[in-house]
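Case study B.
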Amino acid sequence: MGTPANDHALSRLVRKLESIAGLTDEERHAILSLPAKTRFLEPRQDIVRDADKPSQCCLILEGWICRYKLLSEGRRQIFSFHIPGDVPDLQSLHIHTMDHSLATVTKASVAFIPHDALRDLISRFPNIAALLWRDTLIDAGIFRQWMLGMGRRSAYGRIAHLFCEMYVKLEAVGLAGEHRCALPITQLDLADALGLTSVHVNRTLKELRGSGLLTLRSNTLVVEKWDELAQAAEFDPTYLHLEKRAVG
Amino acid sequence: MGTPANDHALSRLVRKLESIAGLTDEERHAILSLPAKTRFLEPRQDIVRDADKPSQCCLILEGWICRYKLLSEGRRQIFSFHIPGDVPDLQSLHIHTMDHSLATVTKASVAFIPHDALRDLISRFPNIAALLWRDTLIDAGIFRQWMLGMGRRSAYGRIAHLFCEMYVKLEAVGLAGEHRCALPITQLDLADALGLTSVHVNRTLKELRGSGLLTLRSNTLVVEKWDELAQAAEFDPTYLHLEKRAVG
DNA sequence: CGCGCTATTGAGAGAGCTCAATGTGCGTGG
DNA sequence: CCACGCACATTGAGCTCTCTCAATAGCGCG
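Model:
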């Protein structure tokens, strides 16, 4: 059953889902009544590991989290960054063995929701199931954009695209505005997400700053010229399918 | 209602789903009764285009199909290859605007199934919904592997990995065996899938042949040394989540 | 105030790209 | 049955984007 603390945590999920489609009172109540254990995590801490068989999902309340996988010789690829409201390992509900890892990027707080409770929820509320399914499909759409970037965009365009994407995603959940947002990741994280080297990210960032498109100080991104950045990135937000504006 | 011809077409979907989990007689019957229009398509023909709002999904009966997106100056990224039994645009059921295109690679035959019928099906059979959801999640897992390749694997490893993946997928639906399968794609397709140039694919293929790992003649791939190929690719099939063996 | 992590910069190397020419197989029409 | 055309595969030469290795600088925190 939901305690007041859980309600607070789970309201993040409610808001996220409501940013996509309406929920009935009953549905909202069912979500808020999910059992959830809140945990506070340090930066760079694994939450779920490659090959694990989790029995719960992780709702992000605060901080950034990423999915990644390692190859030999320390090569790492980050697949996605996740922000509050996301459930980055929702897939574990249907795919029992993890094929990648989940870790914090920053300090974070998360709520763990047991699979059983989620399965019960979606069997009682097919609408919620559809929303969650849809969410995983949007995730896949973001993967495709990253593929497009790694396969066919220059380092410059790739970084620009990621910044556009993160800004829009953060804005949609009320964590950004006025072309300004937090960007609490190192250049090494950026490199591993974009298929580059941190050295090259550094140089390209310098170029991006040099052309006056953005500034980046103390983990804050300020987009000075949105249109030009979006153009350099060939950024078209359709793939994020943000049909409604979310509340803060 | 399903005609005998449709039954034949839809049995491909039944077999695909049964390769993952059991279906009840009722579920099987419901799938076989889906309305479906079969069409024969030429190579390199678009089926659904970026920005379309489709009202049906496409079940592949024969041939290879790919998903791709274009950037300026003719840059193309292929996101996935699909083979008989796949429903490559299942996502259009929940995401109404296409953020990429779907096209044939080879001659193909496909069955179009209206969204309405699919929505009705999944609302009556939550089990089928779960299976289809799961299928889209595996798709996303394949995207992640491609990302990993484009971000962190050499051209050599990337090609090797794709070959391993396609072989295993084809084998799972009975279209490959004895380390031999059809590979009806051009080096340009390969390049666009891997984020490379067709020239470089050509040279790397030569290298792969040279090291005796495989042969490639008249669109047929023969893996001469599976273990070495898999090792060069760092191929681990876990991400395909093929829990059961399929029938031919 | 010093350690440790991250950012920055330099120099040289290399994987993969571009441009361009040539070869090869196959389907079509005569 | 042969000639042609076209698409695809192959090869060469030179280039550049990105990487590697390595050193230096800056910043946050105990």
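Residues 126-152 of chain B form the longest helix (27 residues). The remaining cases will be described in the next quarterly update.
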